[in-house]
Design brief:
Its EC number is 2.3.1.225. This protein is mostly helical. It contains nine helices and eight strands. It binds zinc ion (2 copies). The site of one zinc ion (ZN) has 5 residues, from loops.
């Protein structure tokens, strides 16, 4: 009984931020539509304009939020997981050189470019899998998430390959919602101080509506701006904190293919779909074109073909180099499976979750 209560308590805590945001949005609907547009607006024309402009913005905002929350995180394909036998052999091996060889042999057939600081394929001891490029283990979700950006408590979900476009749109539409509400309620906010406009409790709804819209709007500007910056530079939040390591060393711009191609990788190549929270990101989330490997020559685990990547370039050509696991000059250094000397849960401990 006790564990069940604990699980329910945990779930309640995890969903609390989502409930909080939903409650704010629900209240703002009442304050804007009922108190301001219907009961307070001066003319019929003003009422109609307020209502007609408000609802499409709200719809896109709520749709993006819903998609970000409920998109199921993508995990590595089964080819990346060690079998029970392979895992036991790896665990029972006491010689680090032999462990390294076993892991390298296993990873040889996989389309990976990213390494640990010591040159190893990146390995998740919890999931018992080799991590695909840009994939990280989320200590909250307890799974490895493809192109993990961060775990976001405000959506109670990991943000990654499966929902990054939704997340950026959610921030954008939330900002637009705040700006629209603040600008259209400004006139009635000013009249509050001069004693005009709404009467009774409606005055306070409009007053707080303006304050809340401005407050959220200010915090969203920097967050939305930061994620647009990350999108056009083809970095995840985790990669912005710690550059991914390639055959040639750490490179924070390793996956950057030019701003247009980077944008297309997240938003797709159909302009008509860019602003809708439907999945149009390019690729399969498992393997990525990079500056070292501008086109993907392998069939990535038999999932979504990534033929689009050859059209992503912006005219810049990069030297092509294939990944050769056996010629890694970094392997002579201290051997570690985890990245750069600590556990990946340290990402979360550094406050990245709070985005
Ligand atoms: Zn994992
Ligand atoms: Zn997570």
């Amino acid at each position: 009984m006790a564990p069940r209560v604990c699980i329910l308590c945990c779930q309640a805590v995890k969903w609390a931020p989502v409930v909080f945001i939903s409650a704010i949005v629900g209240w703002s609907y009442y304050a804007y539509v009922v108190q301001m547009a219907i009961l307070t607006a001066d003319t019929i024309a003003e009422k109609i304009i307020f209502l007609v402009l408000y609802h499409p913005i709200l719809f896109l905002f709520v749709w993006s939020y819903y998609q970000t929350i409920f998109a199921k995180a993508k995990t590595p394909p089964k080819e990346f997981f060690l079998s029970q036998t392979e895992w036991q052999q790896l665990e029972s091996e006491t010689n680090e050189n032999n462990q390294r060889d076993k892991l390298n042999n296993f990873a040889k057939k996989l389309p990976i470019q990213n390494r640990t600081i010591a040159g190893f394929p990146r390995y998740c001891e919890k999931c018992k899998c080799v991590k695909p490029d840009r994939c990280h283990h989320c200590s909250v979700c307890s799974i490895c998430v493809l192109k993990m950006d961060h775990h976001c408590p405000w959506v109670n979900n990991c943000v990654g390959f499966h929902n990054y476009k939704y997340f950026v749109l959610f921030l954008g539409y939330a900002l637009l919602y705040c700006i629209y509400v603040a600008v259209s309620s400004l006139k009635y906010f000013i009249s509050f101080w001069s004693g005009g406009g709404a009467t009774g409790v409606g005055r306070f709804h409009i007053l707080f509506l303006f304050f809340v819209a401005v407050m959220f709007g200010i915090s969203l500007i920097s967050l939305f701006g930061y994620h647009i910056f990350l999108t056009v530079h083809n970095r995840s939040t985790l990669e912005a904190f710690r550059a991914p390591i390639f055959q040639t060393g750490a490179d924070k711009d390793g996956f950057s293919l030019g701003s247009r191609a980077n944008f297309a990788e997240v938003f797709g190549d159909k302009k008509s779909h860019w602003f809708l929270p439907i999945f149009t990101s390019l690729g399969d989330g498992v393997s990525y074109a990079s500056r070292l490997q501008p086109t993907i020559s392998y069939n990535t685990m038999g999932t979504t073909p990534r033929a689009e990547t050859t059209n992503l370039g912006d005219g810049v050509t990069y030297p092509t180099r294939t990944v050769d696991l056996d010629s890694d000059g970094l392997l002579g250094q201290r051997q570690r499976w985890m990245e750069e000397g600590d556990t990946e849960s340290s990402y979360e401990n550094k406050g990245i979750e709070s985005a």
